[in-house]
Amino acid sequence: MNTRRIDIAAPSGSELSVLFRVNPRAKRLILRVDPKTQSPVVTAPSPRHYKAAEKFVQSKAGWIENQICRQPDVITLEPGIEIPVSGEMHLLTQSGARGRTRQIEGTPPQLDSPGADITYSDRVLRYLKMKAREALNERVDVHAERLAVDPVKITIRDTRSRWGSCSSKGHLNFSWRLILAPPQILDYVAAHEVAHLIEMNHSDDFWALVEKSYGPHKNARNWLKQNGRLLHAYGSSGSAGG
Ligand SMILES: [Zn+2]
């Protein structure tokens, strides 16, 4: 299986993960962004070009980021717009000068953040990242127990090209944007990455683990394919990193 990736830092500070593919017919390193998945892919004539591909991809980080961020347009987090939280549309509001950022039930439900205009989007973003961390911690615990594994550490990031990742040291990384998706989608990504603690590939054995821990996963995968790009529309490119 060819699932090697190259992780690089983009100029804006966000992280990019580039798929490394081998195709003996390629005459040189070729970089492109898959228009359907928005995933950057570098193709090399042989596995020996991995190091060269790393250098090449890093030198093109700005270009990759532009390609990915070009669409859809960024929807900035400001009062009056609606964003999904756990799959449910919430109206962003700013009720006063002080108080905590919080969700308020109602029709429509609100995500309210009192305080200064200038830090509004940062506050909302911080809140969403905190909620993402809470939800992912909880779901990772559930799946880790089901599969009898111990994740070492969970990190919440703003990865542009994937929803989660797992390192050989047992570190799990997740995109904060999963908190925008319905809970069962976040749950699926948690199960997927926990299963990688046992199988670092996408073999049949791997998918059997996902199935064992999460159940049938086809709908969740389709949902991400169809809606994933939309989740990347929220935020502001200047402050979404970290
Ligand atoms: Zn995977």
Describe this protein's structure:
The chain is α/β, with parallel strands linked by helices and 242 residues long. It has two domains: 5-69, no CATH class; 82-231, 2-Layer Sandwich (Zincin-like). 36% of the residues lie in helices and 21% in strands. Residues 237-242 have low confidence and may be disordered. Zinc ion is lined by residues 192, 196, 202. Zinc ion (ZN) binds next to helix 4.
Which short descriptors sum up this protein?
Zincin-like; 4-stranded mixed sheet
Looking at CATH, the homologous superfamily of the largest domain is Metalloproteases ("zincins"), catalytic domain
Q: Strand order across the biggest sheet?
A: 1-2-4-3
Quick one: CATH class of the largest domain? Alpha Beta
β content, as a range? 15-25%
At the fold tier of CATH, the topology name of the largest domain is: Zincin-like
What is the H/E string?
EEEEHHEEEEHEEEHHH
User: What's the quaternary structure here?
Assistant: single chain
Distance between the termini: 31 Å
